[in-house]
Design goal:
The chain has helices at 7-39, 42-63, 71-97, 103-129, 135-188, 200-214, 216-228, 267-281, 298-303, 319-327, 329-334, 351-357, 375-378, 383-392, 410-421, 467-473, 495-503; strands at residues 231-237, 242-248, 251-256, 259-263, 287-293, 309-316, 344-348, 362-368, 393-402, 427-434, 438-446. It is α/β, with parallel strands linked by helices. The protein folds into 3 domains: 7-215, Growth Hormone, Chain: A (Up-down Bundle); 227-261, Roll (Spermidine Synthase, Chain: A, domain 2); 266-503, Vaccinia Virus protein VP39 (Rossmann fold, 3-Layer(aba) Sandwich), CATH 3.40.50. Strand 3 (251-256) and strand 4 (259-263) form a beta hairpin.
């Protein structure tokens, strides 16, 4: 084979280096993002994924020394095996996760299996390419293309593959690419042991992976049924998150990245306790309100029930969430078409950056952010954000934020409270029972001094809220009373570790 390698064959092998490097980094990113989606805490999941993947690649590279004969044929078989293992990894992990089988054990298994195969690739290709040119040129070319392929995969996955194809179709596409490399090498490179039968295994594997890819929509629907159980009304991946709306009878439920956001069975309890304390404690008659998060429009719906609201600005990161809330018939019925109200202005963007740049001020600011299950969301409950909120409030301004459960995530709840206390001189914690979520908490901060009194309002059709209900919500039983915690900052986001430690063994 040493003298039979032509220029075309050498270029094909070098191009294979680029492709296999692109595929390898993409598998790593797919598995890391899947673990984050199912378990939260991206810092931990990506650290574990990268660690196991790299050490497995190292072991694979070491094991490559024991392959001494039929190197090209061995590489071809590795590509086929990698295409099957990597392509099917998301399907298998998603499906078995729904059976509550130890996800980490399966995750690490695929990391090791795929990492070993990826680790074998470059050493074998380097030895095959020794048949052409000096070793120093071969190593230089191989490593350069390996790094370029890694860059290609690391850009292609977050910018193109993940937003537009999702994890399942991405893994299958990359698997098909690995197998296609194997078929191309069989077809265009001459090697002594080549037979027609060499095509059978890779072609069958490629057709199988492509068939599964073509039915990925049905597979996705099946896997989501395993995760969500209820009928799926809407399901789509946006640039930022997986949005799923389910229905059982009259009960609609919204899930973002697998986490339940609301159930129409009892969401009014949550949203009334989020919105009305802030609106009623503010003394002004014409209120200018800012809602951060809450792209579903439910918080805005309840804000608009108050006659004294002059305008509402909603800042939401995900444009797909806004489109769903504005145009989906089920959502419009749930939120009473609140986002199409003439008093509502919608701004697509990050709330943190909006507060940082805006020169506008508001009477009431309501934060309806997701729970702080990772570092990026933890910043939305940081000292830095609360300082920007304070700067954005008018003289008698009121700020309120949902703060997770004071019972199930006690340290996380009081961490939010204590962090707000670093910025506001007057912070009050309260909580309410929401059957779908359990005991749920909020924190409210006011700039004005004076007695903390909740006035009566007879112009609003409350389903749950009342001054008496709010008064009762101020009492915390012994098992959820105030705790001393560290302060959550942008630089030291301790909140999400409190949160994850609390919810680690909870299934809600």
């Amino acid at each position: 084979m040493k003298n039979s390698l032509g220029v075309f064959e050498q270029r094909l092998l070098l191009f294979s280096v680029f492709i296999v490097a692109l595929c390898g980094i993409t598998y790593e990113l797919v598995l890391g993002s899947l673990a984050t989606y199912l378990l939260g805490n991206p810092v931990q999941q990506y650290s574990i994924t990268i660690g196991f993947f790299l050490v497995s690649m190292g072991i694979g590279s070491y094991l490559s020394r024991f392959f001494v004969d039929k190197l090209l044929k061995t590489f071809i078989l590795i590509e086929v095996a990698l295409g099957i293992a990597g392509g099917m990894s998301v399907i298998v992990l998603n499906y078995l996760f729904s059976f509550s089988i130890s996800y980490y054990m399966l995750h690490v298994f695929f990391l090791i299996a795929i990492g070993l195969l990826v680790g074998l690739e470059i050493p074998l290709l380097t030895r095959i390419l020794k048949g052409y040119g000096a070793l120093k040129d071969v190593i230089s070319n191989v490593l350069s293309l390996d790094y370029l392929g890694g860059l290609g995969g690391s850009l292609l996955f977050p910018l193109v593959l993940f937003p537009y194809a999702g994890r399942l179709l991405t893994s299958l596409t990359v698997g098909a690419l690995n197998i296609s490399v194997a078929i191309a090498l069989i077809a265009f490179i001459r090697y002594p042991e080549r037979k027609r039968s060499d095509y059978v295994f890779p072609v069958v594997a490629l057709l199988a992976v492509l068939a599964i890819a073509f039915s990925s929509d049905q597979l996705n629907h099946f896997l989501k049924k395993r995760l969500f159980f209820d009928d799926i009304v809407f399901s789509r991946r946006s640039q930022y998150q997986e949005i799923v709306l389910t229905r059982t009878g009259d009960d609609f439920r919204l899930y973002l990245d697998g986490s339940l956001q609301f159930s129409t069975f009892d969401e009014y309890r949550y949203h009334e306790m989020l919105v009305y304390p802030a609106l009623m404690l503010h003394p002004g008659s014409e209120k200018k309100v800012l809602v951060m998060g809450g792209g579903d429009g439910l918080a805005v719906r309840d804000v608009l029930k108050c006659n004294g609201v002059k305008s509402v600005t909603l800042v939401e990161l995900d444009p797909l969430m806004i489109s769903l809330a504005r145009h989906n018939p089920s959502f419009k019925r749930i939120n009473r078409d609140s986002l199409n109200d003439s008093r509502v202005r919608v701004i697509i963007g990050d709330a943190f950056m909006y507060l940082r740049k805006t020169s506008e001020t508001y009477d009431v600011i309501i934060a309806d952010f997701p729970d702080p299950h990772d570092e990026s969301i933890s910043k939305l409950y940081s000292v830095e954000l609360f300082r920007m909120v304070k700067r954005t409030l008018r003289g008698n301004g009121v700020f309120i934020t949902q703060s997770t459960s004071p019972l199930f995530a006690r340290d996380a709840f009081w961490c939010i409270h204590n962090t707000m206390g670093q910025v506001f001189s007057r912070v009050t914690a309260y909580h309410v029972y929401v059957p779908t979520f359990g005991d749920w908490g909020f924190n409210i901060a006011m700039l004005r001094k004076g007695k903390f009194e909740m006035p009566e309002r007879r112009d609003i059709d409350f389903r749950f809220f009342s001054p008496a209900t709010f008064a009762g919500s101020l009492y915390f039983p012994r098992d959820s009373r105030k705790r001393l915690t560290k302060i959550n900052t942008f630089d030291r986001p301790v909140l999400y570790t409190y949160y994850l430690n609390a919810w680690r063994y909870m299934d809600y």
